[in-house]
């Protein structure tokens, strides 16, 4: 088995080989640079977004969706920024751009429709949990939930022959998949996803939330990791949100996760109901070709 440093280098080499496919698009780099500037304004961000009409339309659609539940229609990107905030707009742009970028990594091993349904369902649960936990900028947890399994697309694209049998045997159980990935290639899809988040310049808390979502006890950054882990677990308990093509299964969170978040498991039904109200619309905004 590789050491931690060896694994990190192996993952970076893997991503370097695929950099043409998985590098962040120019518009995301420009948005991040603008946000880091002391001169950043809603208008300067809007000008960048509006250079991509498709991105603008999808962000406006999402800002007007059930995900935000506003009682008046937002007509312009600059207005969306003033209502939902600069960081929320950046994270929505990031979500839309990332799904477009990573959809360039199709694999014969992955039912891509099921993959993105699970990803969007997990993202909505993560955002809901972040709001309930009063986490600052809950949209970043939406991004974490949306991209938590993105490393799977990289692994199945690069190692289809090595991982085919384990994927079939696991029947969508992600804990089993992650363990077998570590045994077969030395690292798992969560670690690859965390490295991708680093490549995209996302905050370390989000990198860890993705990298440790199958091992929430392995890092001191408990809140964000616990949110993505629990969101993933609860999504897998539903037919609409399961990673498995065979539907819902009894996915269980790691001990202590509910306590870490200060929440009671009794909220699960209410949480699922909230997410179901937003799911199909959000799925079609994030991935218009989804069915």
TrEMBL record:
Gene3D superfamilies attached to this UniProt entry: Hypothetical protein af1432
Listed Pfam families: HDOD (PF08668)
Record bears the keyword Lyase: no
GO MF entries: hydrolase activity
InterPro entries registered for this protein in UniProt: HD/PDEase_dom, HDIG_dom, HDOD, RNase_Y/CdgJ
Keywords: Hydrolase
Superkingdom of origin: Bacteria
Protein name: Metal dependent phosphohydrolase
Keyword Hydrolase belongs to the record: yes
Domain HDOD as annotated: residue spans: 21-216
Species, as recorded: Thioalkalivibrio sulfidiphilus (strain HL-EbGR7)
